[in-house]
């Protein structure tokens, strides 16, 4: 059932082009110029009147929530807060009627996320679920929702769940932006067209696999690793670091690139691999200067860049290219090489990729 792949994780990484298609199938209707999502349409007033959106989740799903924060604020111009479900539920949160809470969970069974949902409902908020597992507890406990339709995710490290969560959340944001007139029809159409071709671009990005494996071979014995990104790709840096930690047991941290000079830069020496996401736009020039700072401290730079990139590539020790796309959709591409990097490093270190130590696929205890 691994379909010829050595591990479920690798199979699931490779399934992403199809999984993303499955996520937008029937929803993204380019010819009609609409996004069809019953759970959103049936509650459109609640979304449009929301004073703010609160996203609750854990782990990788929380990272998808952070990406969504950037996307919602940009497209819908509504304030968004992203909360660890475990923190939110225990601090007497200010939440109530007029708030829209979006709970994100692959398994739909995460105890803290479920508790955050129950609390939000008690306090009168409208709660929308983004789950992968159909019929899961969270999908039943929420007022409405949208499934990711990514298919079963067996590997403990979440991969296709993450990219499909981002896909669903982007569709919701686009739909709301269109409904409120926050984006023009032509902008809307351009986003739809770009979203439609993202699976092809993910496919193309997957071709970097061998190149990424060669990079993994160089850094597999690292003791630490730093991941940097800005804007939409800051949460991707967090997610890249989490993937490496959980399956290879190498200590890794993700940071917004500009925060480096406020502390983590002290860690940089010739032993430290730094993975920098430096796609075009997204304050590219700022990232170039961050990369220069790493270079001058002899850090080893692995850069994820837009195809044809020159400036960062000239400074980096290793370059991984992703196809060009709209800035807002770059996380769907930049995530891929980071998943592959963690995967190969973990395999080379002899780790149990699909069942890392101390971790369970769904965390049903708090
Ligand atoms: C990381 C990972 C975990 C989950 C987290 C939330 O690869 O798998 O961090 O993302 O436990 O799980 P769900 O999304 O099922 O609520």
UniProtKB/TrEMBL annotation:
Residues 43-182, 215-356 form the SIS domain. The keyword ATP-binding does not apply. Its main location: cytoplasm. GO terms for biological process: amino sugar biosynthetic process; carbohydrate metabolic process; fructose 6-phosphate metabolic process; protein N-linked glycosylation; UDP-N-acetylglucosamine metabolic process. It catalyses: D-fructose 6-phosphate + L-glutamine = D-glucosamine 6-phosphate + L-glutamate. The active site is at residue 361. One of its GO terms (molecular function) is glutamine-fructose-6-phosphate transaminase (isomerizing) activity. Keywords: Aminotransferase, Cytoplasm, Glutamine amidotransferase, Repeat, Transferase. GO terms for cellular component: cytosol. It comes from the Bacteria. It is found in: Cytoplasm. Its EC number is 2.6.1.16. Homodimer. Catalyzes the first step in hexosamine metabolism, converting fructose-6P into glucosamine-6P using glutamine as a nitrogen source. This is Glutamine--fructose-6-phosphate aminotransferase [isomerizing]. It comes from Robertkochia marina. The lineage of its organism: Bacteria, Pseudomonadati, Bacteroidota, Flavobacteriia, Flavobacteriales. The gene is glmS.
